[in-house]
Structure formats: C-alpha cells, structure tokens
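Please, structure for the following, as tokens.
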Amino acid sequence: MIRSLLACLCLGALLCACAQEAPPAPPSPAYLPDGRPETLSSWGQLAVGGGELVLGEAVTPYHLATSLFTDYAQKLRTVWIPADAGPAGYDPEGAFDFPVGTVITKTFYYPRAQGGFDHVALAGAGMAHYADRRLDLTQVRLIETRVLVHRETGWVALPYIWNDAQTEATLARAGGFIDLVLVSEAGDQALGYAVPNVNQCAGCHETDTMDGVGARPIGPRARHMNTDFEYFDGVANQIDHWSELGLLTGSPASDDAPRNVAWHGELPLTGEALDHAARAYLDINCSHCHSRTGPADTSGLYLEADEPVGPHLGVCKLPIAAGRGTGNHRYDIVPGSAEDSILTHRLASVQSDVMMPELGRALSHEEGVALIAAWIDAMSGGCG
C-alpha cells in the first residue's frame, strides 16, 4: 500500500515537471546570405520556451550609454559575428566596421501590467527583466525584433512582429501598428505602437548619404558603447569585454576611448552633468540624421555630441524649410528660453508634420523634453 502511494506521488511529481516546459537550449545562430526569412527563429539569435527568451550560442548582449527613445519601450540588443568572419574593426567616431555575416538584433518589449495582454507598464531604464542570458516572459510582453544583417551587398534591415502567444515573430516588411495601453501612476494612456517598414528601417540607418554604402548600424559606436554592462558572469566595460572576446579589434583601453554619459531619465541636473546628459540625448536620438553626412545635412543643424556650441548646434540659428514645425518660433535654440526654442517645441510635439524625430515614437518623451528644456534654460546670452 505504502509502495503504491509512493509510486503515485512520484508519478504525479513527474507529470507536473513535464507539464512545466523547460527553458530551451541556446539555439545555433545562422548567417543567411540572401532572402528575407519569414520567421525570426530562422536566424537562431533568440529562442523562446518555458516562459523565457534565450540568447543563441555566442550571441552577445549589449546596451548603449544613453538610449534612443521609443515610446518608453525597453530593448534587448544583441550582436553575433560568425567565428570565421573575424572581429569588428574599431572606429573612434563612426559605427564599428562589422564583417560580412554579422547579425545585430534589437528586441522591443514592455513590462506587463494588470488589465490584460494589451496593458503594458511604463518603466525606467531597460534590461530590468534580463538576467543570465534570459528574458523572463512571465513579466514582459515582446513587441518586435529588428534584425540588421551584413551581407555581401551591404546591410539589410528586417522587422519582425511577435505573435500573441509570444512564441514566434514573423516578418513584417510593411511594418504594422499594435494597440497598447500604457499604464503609469498618471493613469492609462492609449498607445498606437508603430513598427517601421523595411524602407523606413533602411532610411534611418543610412547615416552617411555621401559614401554610397547605404544602411549601417547606428548604436555600436565607441561613445555609445563605452559603458559598463552586467553580463551573466559579472560587470565589465563593453569595449574592453568585446576586445577580450575577440569581437572587436584595434580599440584602445576604454579609458582612452570616446564616452557619452549614461542618462536614464534622472532629473534635475545642473552644470556639467546637465550639459553632458543633454548632448548625449541629442546625439543618440537625433544625430544619425542631423550631421554633416546624414539625411538632414541640408538643415545646417548638427547634433552630434562633439559639435561646438554655435549656430550649427542650433543656437540663434534660423530654421530651413521647417514649415509648421517652427511653432511660430524664430530660432532653433534661444539661450535662456526653452519656451521660445523650436528644438523643444518639436521634441514635445506628437503631430506628424511637426515632431522630431519623425519616426520611432507616438508619444512625447516627457523626461527627455524636460532635460533639453533645462539645458536651454541654463544657457546664457539670448539671440539679441
């Protein structure tokens, strides 16, 4: 009788264990030299199972010192370079020179909130639910994953949208819209999250219209990457760690590399801390277009972190072909008066023909606008 009871208990425990799906083994990454795979799993960069998103073998996570704003979404960024492709070449200014075969992914997700599958929570800095190469899907909702692959013909950008079951993401060449409810202490807010189409992805990533290369990575630059990351085996500087892993060659020690500050919404700031945070924010959010080689080069407004303070940074600069975007203001930046500056007006707007950036958001980044407003208000001089 006792043996039979024990046998039943063991069998029950075994059945319960089987009912709980085990996390998947790390998949084997693949470089696909042509075509547009219909499923994200075809790339082997990520795998889903047992309530977790798992990184593929030798797929390395990373983040940026200050992140691009995308409607408060959190982001899991990864890079994978085939073992026989060789490392990426270091560049002190532009994106690292990744070899053919490199696959970069960026997965957008939100913390789940009470109220249903479409309810997501506003949160601070990303990676809050990521640990030990795994993302806890019981706590977050996956929205989209963007793949950037370096082929013989150049970089190709492909957007994938996750299904409601959170088991697979499928190619969305035409982009898409996902209706969400953003939940915060201020209340619930409807959010029409926009996934960019293939052409929009390529357009944003064409950061140099002069050299004919086309799309390329935006984030993996020395000044954005020169920050610490909490890897599963400890905290390390990303440039140093990539060099140790053989992912990057030719780089100096991180102490000698360019560095933007890490800003994740902290306010208020003053003095140098305010200036450095504002410049880093404009750099990552705006300078891929607003540079001397970017798509907005004819605007004369250049927002890279090292641009000297003056008219090209927007100070007392008249706009070029801004139309309704000026908000009836005269200058891009009026020192001492954010209220009279076109820059803050466009950052705060959600009107399609006014707002900047033009793509990637449906909401105004309240903390970002407050940062840039404080930075402008702290300037002295005025425009005469």
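The chain has two domains: 18-249, 268-377. The two ends are 96 Å apart (CA to CA).
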